[in-house]
Amino acid sequence: NDTRFLYRCASLWFVFGGGTELTVTGQPTVSPSVQVFAPSQEEIRSPNPYTVVCLLTGFYPPAFNLQWKGGADVISSGVETTKASKQGDKYLASSYLKLTAAQYEKYESFTCEVTHESKKISKTVSKSGSC
């Protein structure tokens, strides 16, 4: 019955709320591989903002939270994070932290903290470019 289906869908909306995504599959959870890249030397020599990149690959399900830190400080401005994109049966995403020269010089290192299925994964890159 179409009416019964509509009622179930509407009931689920009230249970979970708007904007909540529920994924039900038999596919196992896979944590993302996380890599962080410092700005290139060429970018540092330019007057443009510096970009630190965080790349998440090979994860499932697609929901995640991401936070940037400069040293121990949380950085929320200048952050652009993509939604997860499907790649085969897993997902990938990226986040870009854009910094002025002054912001970049303030910290010795930058950390990308990812929470996926209640597991926290942190990767740090120092200004020298070593991980």
From TrEMBL:
It comes from the Eukaryota. It holds the Pfam family C1-set. Keywords: Disulfide bond, Immunoglobulin domain. Residues 32-126 form the Ig-like domain. InterPro entries: Ig-like_dom (IPR007110), Ig-like_dom_sf (IPR036179), Ig-like_fold (IPR013783), Ig/MHC_CS (IPR003006), Ig_C1-set (IPR003597), MHC/Immunoglobulin (IPR050160). The keyword Disulfide bond applies. Gene3D superfamilies: Immunoglobulins. PANTHER family: IG-LIKE DOMAIN-CONTAINING PROTEIN, MHC CLASS II-RELATED. This is Ig-like domain-containing protein. The lineage of its organism: Eukaryota, Metazoa, Chordata, Craniata, Vertebrata.
